[in-house]
Each structure stands twice: as C-alpha cells, then as structure tokens.
Amino acid sequence: MRKIGISEIEDIALGAALLGAGGGGDPYVGKLVAIGAVKECGEVTLLDPEEVPDDALVIPIAMMGAPTVLAEKAIGGNEYKTLYDMVSRFFGKKVYAFLPIEAGGVNSMLPIAACARLGLPLVDADGMGRAFPELQMVTFTIGGMSASPMALTDEKGNCVIFETITNKWTEELARAVTMSCGGSVSVSLYPMTGVQMKQYAVKNIVTRSQKLGEAIRTVKDSGSKTPEEHFLEFSGGFRLFRGKIVDVLRETRGAFNFGKVVLEGIGDYKGQSAYVEFQNENLTATVEGEILATTPDLICLVDTETFAPVTTDALKYGKRVLVVGLKCFDLWRTPAGLDLVGPRYFGVDTDYIPIEIRCKGGNS
Fold this sequence. Notes:
12 helices; 7-stranded antiparallel sheet; alpha+beta; 27% strand; 6-stranded mixed sheet; single chain
C-alpha cells in the first residue's frame, strides 16, 4: 500500500502511454484529469493486488471510444459517481476499489481521478498489460469472466446497464451506444471479486508504468550508454526502425481510429522505408516489406530525442521517431489469447511470431 500524488501521476502517465502501444488516449489529457482530482480531493491509495480481500467487489473503470474524440469531448466529472452507484445498486454491495482496464495515457489516469473523487483505493493491476481496442480483449475473458453487467454513462447523464450473452456482444452493443453518445463514454465492466482479480489480472501495472515513466524522464542521465541504449535496456525493447514520418493516413470509423503511418529511414536506416498500421493501437510494424512485429506484442513509437511515447492521434508529418517492440504479457501468447488479439483477428494475414524470434534476438 502506498500513496499516489501529483509527481507519481506524471510518471505513471508517461510510462502508461508507452505501454498503450500507440493507443489508450492522450497522456496530457489524462494527466490533467487525474491531477485535477488529486489537487481537489487528495492523494490516492494504491493497493497491491494481494491486499484486496477475496470477497471484495472490484471493478475496472475506463473511457470507451476513439481517443481523438476525448480530446474534444472531455469527461464531465459526475461519471465516476454514476458508475459507482449503478454497480453498487445492481449487486446490493458497495464497490471496494477501482482498477484500470488497460495501460494508456487516459485509461490509466481516469481510475486515479475516480478513486480520488470517491475516496476509494486503486488496485495495482489491469486486464491487458497494454492497450487493446475492443472490450472483450482482456485477460479476464481468457479466465471465463463476463464483461457484464457493464455500466455505461456519458457526460450528459445518459446511462445504461448491459447484461449480455458473450463479451463480444458486450463490445458490439456498447460500441453502438458509444457512437450514439458522440464517440466516447465512461464505462465500468468485468465486475469481479478480489479472488478473481488475483487469478487473472496483470499485476503491478501501475508500478511498472511509474518506473517506465521515471526512466523516460531521466533517460539522458545514462552514464556511459547513449540515451537510446539506455531506453532499450530499461524498457526491454527491440529496436525495429528509426525514421521520419512522411505520411499519415487516419480515419475514425465505428468509434475506432484506423490508420497507417509511413516512415523514411534516418541514421543507420537511411534509404529504407517502413510503415506501422493501427486500430487505436499499433497492430503491425513492417520494414522493407518484412513484418518485424505484430499484435499482441507492443509496437511503440517514441521521439528520437526525448523517448516520450507518440500516440496514434499525435502522429505528424516530419516527426522523427524510433519504432520499438516490447514483449506482451505471457497469457496473450496462449492459443486463447491469440484468438482474442492475434494478428489474424485484425485481418493481418500472418501467424503470430514472438518479437524476440522475428528480431532473431538482436537489437534488444
């Protein structure tokens, strides 16, 4: 158990944006929401998963929709209490704690803001260890847990509870309502007991995000190593490409951001080309016609000077980026995990090959 204040939020937002693999929302927007709540209501207690009672009711809380929409249609502030009340009434039992559903610049921040405003603890765990675009894409689905009852509300006060037959149906129905509500909403889903959370959650994700953020912030204090070498070492990353953005194709469709960023090589990669395709999160990285990384491994673009993560909605012509691959949580590499989030689910015509094998162990 420890406290999360403003300095911790700064680092968590930065590290979670890296783990968001291009998605999970703008860390600046998310950080402002969390910092505002902590300034008004005080620091948040972060619980180790093992500190949560087995019979406690815990729920992930998140923003659903296209990250680009949230930057213009901010959260209203009453959504957290609405979700808390809806779930507590449904179960006839008070919610004990919130947790993030994924790592990302917004969805790692909103649970902190919610906990601050409601006086609840935050659990150091999530359901992905990264970000994915659809609701059923969580480790809790692999564990046979239901996404519903799922509570949903928008900033105007419209709210609904879904009870669905499968987690994919939860995604389909909630996505339709999200579109009707303007492209982004606040949700709570996968209500679970403490014991279920301990079995299937990705543990210590908030702490990992904070450590990554602190390391990025101090990346130039790397002694004998270059900042890039230091970044790859502490992140456990594989260097895939270094280049300048020469084209960005982007569209919002079905409350998702779809697109492709084209890169022209710089430095050691001069004369080469690469591209990264995304659906909210980066899905594939292709260099000189060869796929070097696919989902569920993390594909991250970072600034070549600061190593700050660049989200898909912040991609701009001329920006110089390093493309880095990170290993995903082990459960995603199982057959059940690949059925949910493997490349073929997203229409990519290739089998999943772990990034360390695709990169032949080099560049780590």
